[in-house]
Predict the structure.
Amino acid sequence: MFAVSGALGQLPANPLEGTWEMVSQHVVYPDSTVDRTDQIPYTIKILNSTHFAFGRQILDEEVFAGGGTYTFDGDAYTEHITWHSSAGLAGQSVTFEARIEGDKWYHVGHILDFRLEEVWQRIGLSGEADGEEME
């Protein structure tokens, strides 16, 4: 038996805490924009009050993942990447313009030589799984 503090289904004080599923991604290069939404398999990002981790399975045996710490001031979300499948990103910090509207999290930022535009949707709140209340 365990105790849970706070009301079930209540948003945490930090609006980014929780589990998010990527619903769209655009990669913007100087001369083109690539909509990768339909090319990217199921991707989740999990954030607690200080750390983030994301992952997705690309091929049967390959996982693309990363994580570290983050800061969020209401307008800017910065990932301080500790580990990443792309070794060149480990040790880097990436800042995104960020906003939350309802259960959607929008962020736009520059990584390497492109701009990344992503939309994430919250999946489950404390005490919920895939939108259904736990018993």
User: Anything to note?
Assistant: Residues 18-133 form a domain with the Lipocalin fold (CATH 2.40.128.490).
